[in-house]
Amino acid sequence: MESAPYLIIGGSKGIGRGIAQRLLDQGRTVIVASRTAKELPEGALFLATDVVGEGLPLDQLPQELSGMAYCPGSIDLRPMRSIKPEDLRGALELNVVGAFRTAQACADRLKRVPGSSMLFFSTVAVGQGMAFHSSVSAAKGAVEGLTRALAAELAPSIRVNCIAPSLTDTTLAEKLLGSPERAKAAADRHPLKRVGPVDDIASLATFLLGPEAGWITGQVIGVDGGMSRLR
Predict the structure, then answer these.
(1) Is the pTM of this model over 0.70?
(2) How would residue 201 be classed by pLDDT, with cut points 50, 70 and 90?
(3) At 213, phi and psi to the nearest 5?
(4) Residue 45, SS3 per DSSP
(5) Would the N or C end of the chain have less CB density within 10 A of its end CB?
(6) Which residues pair with 6 in a beta bridge?
(7) Looking at the annotation, which residues are catalytic?
(8) In the chain, where are the structural domains located?
(9) Residue 60 has what DSSP assignment?
(10) The predicted structure's pLDDT at residue 173
(11) What mean pLDDT comes out for the span 6-32?
């Protein structure tokens, strides 16, 4: 059992909260970094953080970390013509710059723990090419590139991987799943005919963060109900 904690950025909601809860259930020490402690999983430590503002308060981070997962994201689906430069910059700040700054802040702390790892999140839309996804696909595509670059740079000390989900049943996706008709239409677009459960994503995430994934790095892994590979 690792003595150093896991740091989950954006761990008070959605997939991040699911990861934090799974790690807590395994007896791990978990620090959740988010803007609010309102929905903090019971037993998690809280670190007030604004990833697009000041970023992580370095003086409050422990000197050693077993793993870090960067979970913030957005779903801003609009036609290209309606996306302003500041909208795109906002997506890049949240998804890419925030992830990069967090990696910088955590790298030395992770290196002190053998077998440590970083985990980022992309989207199935990067590989598929989906209408109205230009902003999020541009940002998450950069996250995939960042994942591979950091995996190469930080090996063998730190493993770095990325999960690319399809639509998942979270508060972030409420607008897309807000009625039975919308939920069914979203589910039917997937070969497995359902929207992704948070726990499926969190299960893979905790595996990738942990010692059992010790020979896995530089990977972008789809958890998408078959959408990225099946027709």
Answers:
(1) yes
(2) very high
(3) -100, 30
(4) strand
(5) C
(6) 30, 67
(7) 122, 140
(8) 6-169+197-223
(9) G
(10) 64
(11) 95
